[in-house]
Design a protein that fits this description.
Elements (H helix, E strand, L loop, with lengths): L3 E9 L11 H4 L5 E5 L7 H13 L3 E5 L17 H21 L6 E3 L2 H9 L1 H14 L4 E4 L4 H8 L3 E7 L21 H14 L1 E3 L5 E3 L4 E4 L6 H14 L2 E3 L8
Parallel strand pairs: 1-2, 1-9, 1-10, 2-3, 3-4, 4-5, 5-6, 6-9
Antiparallel strand pairs: 7-8
Helix pairs in contact: 2-3, 3-5, 4-5, 5-6, 7-8
Length: about 260
C-alpha cells in the first residue's frame, strides 16, 4: 500500500504594522504550505516580504491569501463589492504577493480565499466567476484551493485551473461540509484536532456537528494562524502523523 501523503497548511502574514497576529516564525517550522495575506484583510508590504523569506528559509511552499478590503473586520464581514471590482482586487492582491515571491527566486503555488470572501465565492456565481478570472489572468498554472461543494471550486475546474481541497481541523463543519465560522478564533484541543487530521488523511471522512459522518477528502490540513494555540495543534498533528506513517509534503508534490 502506498504511503499516505498530505500537505500541512496555515494562514500566515496576518500581522499589520505594529499589530502582531499569530506566530509565523514558529508556524513555519511545522507546516509544508503557507497562505500569505496580501494586504487587504491583513498584512502589509513589510509583513509580506518577511513572511515570504520565512517560508523560503523553511522550504515551505507559498500561496496567496486574498480577502475583502476589511482590515478592521479582519476580512470576516461580507462586503458589497461588484464582481468586476472583485476581479481587480484579486489581481491586485495576488500580483503583489507574486512579486515578493519571485523576488526571492520562488514560484507562487496556489490561492486560498480568506474568510467572508471564501463564503461569498462559494455561493455567488458572478463573484466566483470574477475571482477565477482574476486568478487565471495572473497565472493559469496557479492551484485554486477551495472545497468541492463550493461554486468557486466548480468554476475553477470549469475554467481549467488545477484545484485542491483544504480542510481546517481547528473548527467545526455542518452536515453540508460548510465550516462554522468563528468571528474570533478560539483555542482548540490539540489531540482532537490531530484525530480529525488523521481521519481526513486516511479515510477522507469527518464527523459533522450533527454527529453524522461526512465525506471530507483533502489535499491539505489547515490550521489557522490566528488560532490561539496553533503551534500546539501543529505539533500534535505532526506527532500523530509520524505515528500513523502519514507523510507531510508540499502541496505541489501532490500535483507532480
Amino acid at each position: 500500500m502506498s504511503r499516505v501523503m498530505i500537505a500541512l497548511n496555515s494562514d500566515t502574514g496576518e500581522s499589520f504594522g505594529n499589530f502582531r497576529v499569530g506566530n509565523d516564525e514558529e508556524l513555519m517550522k511545522f507546516i509544508s504550505s503557507a497562505n500569505i495575506a496580501c494586504g487587504f484583510h491583513a498584512g502589509d508590504p513589510v509583513v509580506m516580504a518577511h513572511t515570504v523569506r520565512l517560508a523560503k528559509e523553511h522550504g515551505v511552499s507559498i500561496g496567496a491569501h486574498p480577502g475583502y478590503p476589511d482590515l478592521m473586520g479582519f476580512g470576516r464581514r461580507k462586503m458589497g463589492v461588484a464582481p468586476e471590482e472583485m476581479r481587480d482586487y484579486i489581481v491586485y492582491q495576488i500580483g503583489a504577493l507574486k512579486a515578493f515571491v519571485e523576488s526571492e527566486g520562488l514560484q507562487l503555488q496556489h490561492v486560498w480565499l480568506h474568510g467572508a470572501l471564501q463564503s461569498a465565492a462559494g455561493k455567488d456565481e458572478s463573484m466566483a466567476k470574477a475571482i477565477v478570472e482574476g486568478i487565471r489572468s495572473v497565472d493559469p498554472k496557479l492551484i485554486m484551493a477551495s472545497r468541492p461543494s463550493l461554486l468557486s471550486y466548480k468554476m475553477a475546474e470549469k475554467a481549467g485551473l488545477r484545484t485542491a481541497v483544504f480542510v481546517g481541523v481547528d473548527l467545526e463543519y455542518d452536515r453540508d461540509g460548510m465550516p462554522v465560522i468563528q468571528r474570533k478564533k478560539k483555542a482548540t484541543d490539540p489531540k482532537e484536532a490531530a484525530g480529525k487530521a488523521v481521519k481526513i488523511a486516511k479515510e477522507g471522512r469527518l464527523t459533522a456537528t450533527t454527529g453524522e459522518e461526512i465525506d471530507m477528502r483533502a489535499n491539505a490540513i489547515l490550521v489557522h494562524g490566528d488560532t490561539p494555540n496553533a503551534i500546539d495543534v501543529l505539533k500534535e498533528i505532526r506527532r500523530e502523523f509520524a505515528r500513523q506513517d502519514i507523510e507531510v509534503v508540499p502541496l505541489g508534490r501532490m500535483f507532480s
